[in-house]
């Protein structure tokens, strides 16, 4: 059990270190960095490498933004097998819609509850 926590921390931390290095060394903007990490997760998923990483690191691989790219590719491929070319688009939206919807709803509630500084 302790090893599972350790590897989740290490892998999640490495993903965060990569993101921080993109900010600091490459001087990329937050939008560019997030997009790059999503694309990296999608590429790893496309080659079948992200699922073994999830099996090994658990939450260390499912919590960072790279997992969003994995979810997009995984949903698109699954639905493409069932519905053909149109499934590529619908699969991405189906898999990620609950997470994106939750982010929008909780962000709106947070904006209503808390007073912005200004």
Structure description:
By secondary structure, the protein is mainly alpha-helical. The chain is 83% helix and 0% strand. It has one domain. It contains 6 helices and no strands. It is globular and about 50 Å long. It starts with a helix and ends in a 5-residue tail after the last helix. The relative contact order is 0.11. The model has no long low-confidence stretch (mean pLDDT 87). This is Stage V sporulation protein AE. Pfam families: SpoVAC_SpoVAEB. InterPro entries: Spore_V_AE (IPR014204), SpoVA (IPR005562).
What labels would you give this structure?
118 residues; transmembrane; 83% helix; SpoVA; 6 helices; transmembrane helix; Spore_V_AE
Q: Which helices and strands occur, and which strands form pairs?
A:
Blueprint: H1 2-24, H2 30-46, H3 50-57, H4 59-62, H5 66-83, H6 86-113
Helix pairs in contact: 2-5, 5-6
Organism: Neobacillus citreus
InterPro entries: Spore_V_AE, SpoVA
Keywords: Membrane, Transmembrane, Transmembrane helix
In short:
This protein is mainly alpha-helical and 118 residues long.
The residue fraction in helices comes out at over 70%
String of helices and strands: HHHHHH
**Count, helices:** 6
Low-confidence spans: none
Decide which structural class fits the backbone: mainly alpha
Shape: globular
Number of domains: 1
Q: Tally of extended strands?
A: 0
Tell me the major beta sheet: none
Q: What is the first-to-last residue Cα distance?
A: 46 Å
Which whole number gives the mean pLDDT?
Answer: 87
Radius of gyration: 17 Å
Oligomer kind = single chain
β-strand percent reads: under 5%
InterPro entries: Spore_V_AE, SpoVA
Protein name: Stage V sporulation protein AE
Keywords: Membrane, Transmembrane, Transmembrane helix
């Amino acid at each position: 059990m302790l090893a599972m926590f350790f590897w989740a921390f290490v892998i999640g931390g490495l993903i965060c270190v990569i993101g921080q290095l993109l900010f600091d060394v490459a001087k990329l903007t937050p939008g560019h960095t997030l997009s790059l990490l999503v694309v990296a997760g999608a590429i790893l998923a496309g080659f079948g490498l992200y699922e073994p990483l999830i099996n090994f690191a658990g939450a260390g691989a499912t919590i960072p933004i790279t997992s969003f790219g994995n979810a997009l590719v995984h949903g698109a491929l699954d639905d493409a097998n069932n519905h053909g070319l149109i499934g590529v688009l619908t699969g991405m939206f189906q898999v990620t819609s609950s997470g994106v919807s939750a982010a929008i709803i909780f962000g709106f509630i947070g904006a209503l509850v808390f007073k912005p500084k200004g």
